[in-house]
User: Fold Pentatricopeptide repeat-containing protein from Trapa natans.
Amino acid sequence: MHGRPTEEELRGPTLMRASRRALSLIGRCTTARQMKQVQSNLTVSGTLSDPYAVGKILTFFAASDPSYADQFFDFLPFPCGATFVWNTMIRSLVDRNEHAAAFSLYRSMASEARLLPNNYTFSFLLNACAELVDICCACTLHCQAIKLGWESYDFVQNGLVHVYAICGDLDSAHALFNASEIKDVITWTALINGYSKLGQVDVARELFDEMPHRNSVSWNAMINGYVQVGLCKEALELFNNMQATSGLLPSPAGIVGALNACSLLGALDQGRWIHAYVDKHQISLDQMLRSALIDMYAKCGCVEMALDVFERMPKAERDVFAFTSLISGLANHGEGEAAIKLFERMESEGVVPNEVTFICVLSACSRMGLVDRGLRIFGSMREVYKIEPQAQHYGCLVDLLGRAGMLREAKKVVEEMPMEPDSYALGALLNACRVHGEIELGRKMVEGLAHRKLDHGGVHVLLSNIYASASQWGDVVQVRRGMEENGVRKVPGCSSIEVNGAVFEFVVGDRSYMSVDEIVLTLAGMDKHLKSLGPVEEGEDERADSG
DNA sequence: CTAGGGTTAG
Assistant:
């Protein structure tokens, strides 16, 4: 029996009595109408007491019509539905991110249905705790699992190690790991992951080297662990190592990690190599992998390829990540107009922007000097998308107004925003003060911040930059001296870029690397060239915008 | 019927 069910099969009154055939039929239903028809036949024939059939129907509706699934479950003629059906329902609630409902169902399992949870129940709910990073809940479940005798079952064991590790309680996770008699790849990987998330990559690496068997998930956990703490070279080294030694094909998730490392390093050649590798081995290009490719190309300075990956993406897969990555890439390459156009295209294609998208598109507006457009987009956040602007968005607004020379308006935003301005908002305002020669305003702001103990290194550096722009060297020295005396430090900026396959790293103020003279000369040349082009007339872009 | 890994931010 293969293929879609025929009308005859669906209507067949006697067929339902045989549970196995019912299961096969359920498996072949593709529409809600078909499934409901089978469901009513099962109800009439009494086969609905088969929990496997019920479970399959539940799972089908949980994915397509959740409220119908809930209804179906509520009206099931219990006690025919065994623990299995409850587990299925709990799992589908967890899948739908309705964790609270899943836990409440767990509670009524004993009270209403007089059913005891089993190893499956615990495994699903421990997973839910891990998603919520809720260690209290995990402890409660742990106790109950012990009480009911499910503690030492493999999935429960691994679920416990995983949840404690994710919640950062590595002592508990490791203790369970040590006591565990099963210790499979999953137990090891859960622990490695926990240490990575805490930033303890050395411990994670030791475990990784020590574990008896590694699969691609274990490799990925370690690769991503390195990326998370910024050890991108180590991440790529491990990624290459995996190809060379393990004989495993990396999964899309692992490739995302490696591409991430390339993005952070600016390692275009390595990124290209990975892209080619993906093509060659026909690794499936899923949504996330495509977004990671777009991001990698954009961050490595190759917007054309970023665009190419985007356009080749099936339309239905172009999600908010793909759009936002590209919008950000375009904005960062001076293609502000294209970034805004893409944002509009996103809207017209019905892809809903999120808070990150707004940061990217607003910054595109501010670099283009498109004040009105930026203000309109900012307004649409709340009005159209019901996204409450965060400090970061107010920061973008300050930048938008400040760059355009509307200092008073920018200052007003800083003063009236509903939360404490973050360093970006303050930095944007101070930067605007520098560009537009508003020395007094800048000075007063920093003084006010220092008074309220809200000053940090970056703010003082910006103030000294303001003085420097105005050639007030005495004040520059004073600010710097004040910073020294008060022990204020700014974290030095750093960046990296790949040239001919080798990655070079730079730290502000460090002149020890090779060809520093050449770089400084080139920069001076670029600066001179830009200045020779003359200033862009104020308001020029705004007119182009409305015209 | 089950578990561990992944994407966008000035």
In short: Residues 516-532 of chain A form the longest helix (17 residues).
